[in-house]
Amino acid sequence: MRLASGVWVSAYLTRLRLADIPAFVVARGDETAGAVLIKLNTLDGNAKAFQRSFDMMTGERTWMVLADGIEQDVDMSIAKQRSFDSDLWVIEVEDRQGRTLLDEDGLS
To answer: Could you tell me which CATH number the domain at 5-94 has?
Structure first.
């Protein structure tokens, strides 16, 4: 059973807040089944976008890099994703150290 997207986003934002990592919702997706995309803004003109992927070999969900580079290029990649998925959540994390917490237990 999968956790509803809105619940996952709320829990993720709480974890980031507890770690003093600023984050905000850029695009609100479907509360129940919307995919989630995380943009990491390192505040130096660069960014990364992460999306969840299903690993067919292990059956686990993992985070993979969708786009990496100049922030404007990453934003264009995210806009392209949103153009064909109106249910997509986009969360922007701002951290100079590059922390997203996506590697922590419970966030896959």
So the answer is: 3.40.1530.20
Model confidence pLDDT, tens digit, residues 1-25: 467 999 999 999 999 999 999 999 9
44-93 pLDDT tens trace? 999 999 999 887 888 788 899 999 999 999 999 999 999 999 999 999 99
CA dihedral 40, 64, 90, 29 (to 10 degrees): -160
User: What residue segments make up the domains of the chain, in order of their start?
Assistant: 5-94
Q: Which residue has the tokens 């997203």?
A: 100
Element (H, E) at 34: none
Burial class (CB in 10 A: 0-12, 13-18, 19+), 26: middle
104 CB-near residues (< 8 Å, 6+ apart): 15
